[in-house]
Amino acid sequence: MDFSFFIAARYFRSKKKRNFITILSSISMIGVAVGTMALVIVMSVFNGLEDLIRGLFASFDAELKIEVAEGKSFEVTEEWLEEIRNRPGVAVLTEVIEDNALFEYNGNQLVARIKGVSDNFLDQERFSKGYFWGDTTLGTELNPGAILGRGVGFFLSVNLDNVNVPLKVFYPKAPRSAATLDPNQLYTSGFLEPVAYFSIERQFDDEYVIAPLAFTRDLLNYGSKRTALEVKVAKDYTIDEVQSELQDFLGAEFLVKNADEQHAGLLRTVRLEKLFVFLTLTFILGIASFNIFFSLSMLAIEKKKDIAILKAMGAPEKMVRRIFLKQGALIALSGAVIGLVLGYLVCWLQATFGLVSLGIPSAVVDSYPVKMIWTDFFWISIAVLTITILASYRPAWIASQVETTKEL
Asked: How many Cβ atoms are within 10 Å of 366's Cβ, its own excluded?
């Protein structure tokens, strides 16, 4: 065993009557434990929220989305679409036309986004999370149906059981068609039958109406143009593999985005919040670790004679510094281990039993989501170690400067 560690361990495990220094050391260890536990819990909650967001978005968005790099829409042909369907890893290809439109139901009006999709839209396991009630089809060609976000449906006061009141959709015509005195010539309109509600996340619930592709194409006069293509990846392939394959095939004119890239801004915000919370809690942990500084400083004063004896026996200043640095490390390590274990236990209990509820009756999940990642434990340990070294260095240096002739 290293001699400096042996001395540090003896100081740490001292069984002599507890005095102010040992009490301060215990307080230091408890402070490190509480700070470490808080870091583990908060990081795990942020991981859980990020995972929840991904899961909710995956219920509405495609695994891969093909968009034009510049502009709003692009021309498609059946031959070109068939080539994409035949690319390795493409299980389902859904055509999409999406734009803003005015919706009216029983006198109530709302501007929302109409998303026209081909018949295989629901084959991509849409709405697997959240709530969905009503018919899972989009009607027929003669009687097209609409799946409404819950916010849209509630704002328009849509009654799914009342089949006699249709959902009216209005879309403005191109500006060149505006040179007329008849207001009916300024827009196109159509009728949809509300068949279902979905509720995933407010961003989608308050904004989207899902409609058949043919109805949306005719209403918006898109012809062979599409705003996006959505891809479901086959089971034997990874999303990254298929994304790379499609990007190479389509070239620079198109963007192939995975689920994270479709909402890069929101996920980046969550990660930045997690980073700033980590830094804030680490700063608080650093303040709590000042107890280590004071306890080691007082220990260095109390052990002046012991240090003088060690130096008289030939111990160099470097060894004395190591003793106090390791003493601080033992205090912090004990607190960190306790904090990591308690943090893990609290997160496990929350994930298993949902101890802390969100308090929102309409929420998709009942309790705060948590997800533990080993890298968080690693960085928390690194933070504790760094703070300990900074807090212990000055007392260790003071202890190493004890003059043997004055203390003996």
From this structure: 12
Residue 407 has pLDDT above 60, yes or no: no
Question: d(Cα 181, Cα 160) in Å, to the nearest integer?
Answer: 37
Q: Where are the domains of the chain?
A: 3-57+266-407, 63-259
Distance in Å from the first CA to the final CA of the chain: 28
Which structure tokens are listed for 293? 């500084």
DSSP3 helix / strand / coil % (the chain, rounded to 5):
55, 20, 25
* DSSP state letter for 160: T
Tell me if residue 34 falls in helix, strand or coil.
helix
Between 290-302 and 317-353, two packed helices, what is the crossing angle to 10 degrees?
A: 140
Query: Strand, coil or helix: what is 133?
Result: strand
Report which residue type is found at 33: A
Q: Which residues pair with 193 in a beta bridge?
A: 145
Q: Are 138 and 145 in contact (CB under 8 A)?
A: yes
205, 362 contact by CB (below 8 A): no
Q: Which of these ranges, 18-27, 48-57, 106-115, 195-204, has the smallest mean pLDDT? A: 18-27
Q: Are strands 90-105 and 228-233 parallel, antiparallel or unpaired?
A: antiparallel
Three-class SS state of 254: strand
Of 137, 142, 108, 105, nearest to 123 by C-alpha is: 137
Under 8 Å CB-to-CB from 177, ≥6 apart: which residues?
A: 185, 186
Q: At what angle do helices 304-312 and 290-302 cross, to 10 degrees?
A: 60
Q: Are strands 187-199 and 145-149 parallel, antiparallel or unpaired?
A: parallel
Q: Tell me the C-alpha to C-alpha distance, in Å, between residue 370 and each of 48, 51, 124, 343, 351.
A: 4, 9, 27, 11, 6
Is the distance from CB of 267 to CB of 260 less than 8 angstroms? yes
What does DSSP assign to residue 17? P
Its pTM stands at 0.78
The enclosing H or E element of 79 equals helix 78-85
Distance CA 232, CA 62 (A): 6
For helices 20-60 and 264-288, the axis angle rounded to 10 degrees is 170
Predicted confidence (pLDDT) at residue 104 exceeds the cutoff of 70: yes
